[in-house]
Amino acid sequence: MFAQTYQNILVGTDGSEQAMEAFKKAVAVAKRNDGTVFVANVIDHQLYSFMGYSPLNESIIDQQTEDAKKLIEECKQVAKDMGYDRIEGIVAYGSAKEAMARTLPEKYDIDLVMVGQSGLNAVERFMTGSVASYTIKEAVCDVLIVHPSVEK
């Protein structure tokens, strides 16, 4: 029987509960496989243009970059609290869909992409499309979708 081990796991973070849940599950998979979690925050310039902001407005990009770094540090602390420290942070720029499905997996030799079902509200999903849906269809590696926990 073939047993897949995942050494390089990519998970996106946007500050949502879904993204944090996906991150925690990625850490658990990495621990079982003695792998590395690459936690990425992608700053999507197209979204800012769509909302009427200039993509060249450096103060917006600088603020988003600082926010991304803080999110990544929060993830690293969560992983440390879970007893794992093989976490690499990535701040990327461009299309979140392309970054999660192709660009980052190819660049970092990713075996598995884990994404939360949705970190966007309905209006944002309509404007930008679902990163998770795109990643499922277009990823260059395996994808695991983490659904929100349901209280029973």
UniProtKB/TrEMBL annotation:
<dbReference type="Pfam" id="PF00582">
    <property type="entry name" value="Usp"/>
</dbReference>
<keyword id="KW-0963">Cytoplasm</keyword>
<feature type="domain" description="UspA">
    <location>
        <begin position="6"/>
        <end position="147"/>
    </location>
</feature>
<comment type="similarity">
    <text>Belongs to the universal stress protein A family.</text>
</comment>
<dbReference type="InterPro" id="IPR006015">
    <property type="entry name" value="Universal_stress_UspA"/>
</dbReference>
<protein>
    <recommendedName>
        <fullName>Universal stress protein</fullName>
    </recommendedName>
</protein>
<dbReference type="InterPro" id="IPR006016">
    <property type="entry name" value="UspA"/>
</dbReference>
